From TrEMBL:
InterPro entries: RVT-Znf. Pfam families: zf-RVT. Residues 12-96 form the Reverse transcriptase zinc-binding domain. It comes from Vitis vinifera (Grape). The lineage of its organism: Eukaryota, Viridiplantae, Streptophyta, Embryophyta, Tracheophyta. It comes from the Eukaryota. This is Reverse transcriptase zinc-binding domain-containing protein.
Amino acid sequence: MVFWTETKSEKFSVKSLYYVYELDNPSLFPSSCISNVWVKPKISFFVWEATWGKILTLDLIQKRGWAFANRCFLCYEKEETIDHLLLHCTKTRVLWDLLFTLFGVSWVLLSSVRETLLSWHGSFVSKKRKKVWRATPLCIFWTVWKARNKLTFNDDVLLIQRLKYFFVFSLWSEAKLFIVDYPLTIVSFINWLGSS
Ligand SMILES: [Zn+2]
């Protein structure tokens, strides 16, 4: 259970986040790209926080005065920022490339999480697949964040194949909630994504 003090019941609701954040800066926040997408509340919550730069990545911890070398837990090459981790890291790019291959589209990622979500309309995706398309960035963000935390806390090894599987599995699990006649297996789901 996530407690959220902005609502009377203290239970988390995406709508309550909407009011808290949206009031500050309505034009620049991709609210409909998060709150209108059918994914689990914990995923929406994470993406709201990430979009507002409130996820505690190493660069933010450094800004709070902690001195240490900032290295991304996934690639060990670049510094960890939220935009690097969720968009530009070479390991994360594997998931974005997989996504574009599954949908059969060409796409250029924008520089920030916020810009990416604002541009994520999917007007070229068929009506049947549009809800899934809209859920995809959120599922990538969530998959990468979970993998990153596992590497941080468990001293685990990043396996790209496992990362790809977790992403497709996460997307399939979320899609079950809203696809009519949803594909019963991951393989049939992958075929469904590639259909028109
Ligand atoms: Zn990286």
